[in-house]
Amino acid sequence: MPTISMFYGILVAMYALDTEKHHLPHIHIRYNEYKAVLKIPDGEVLEGDFPIRQMKLVQAWIELHQDELMADWYLASSGQTPFKIDPLR
After folding, report:
1. Does any domain span residue 88?
2. Most C-beta atoms within 10 A of its C-beta, which of 29, 40, 66, 89?
3. How far apart, in whole angstroms, are the C-alpha atoms of residue 24 and residue 83?
4. Mean pLDDT over residues 49-68, rounded?
5. Domain tally for the chain?
């Protein structure tokens, strides 16, 4: 699973050809022992659990990078490697 961004200890990844389970554009996030799957471009939680503070950071990052995330989703859903996206600063 390619990591497309990393900030404040949060890893953001997007699997290639990951359309079977969720059927919607989404990202996978990890922070310590927490994992979640968020829909893009709105940041809705599809699965998992995440600390509130870190979730707000990820959702702000999604808001800033909606277009890039959707472009990466189309690449990944067709089997291509998604591009890296700038971290939240």
Report:
1. no
2. 29
3. 19
4. 97
5. 1
Give residue-wise pLDDT tens across range 1-30.
689 999 999 999 998 777 677 678 999 999
On whether residue 43 sits in a domain, the answer given is: yes
Distance between CA atoms of residues 26 and 35, nearest Å:
13
More confident residue, 20 or 76: 76
Residue 48 lies in domain:
3-77
Query: 86 in a domain, yes or no?
Result: no
Alpha carbons 69 and 83: distance in angstroms, whole number = 9
Tokens 């829909």 appear where?
Answer: 39
DSSP label at 49?
A: E
Residue type, 18: D
Can you state the percent helix, strand and coil of the chain, rounding each to 5?
A: 30, 30, 45
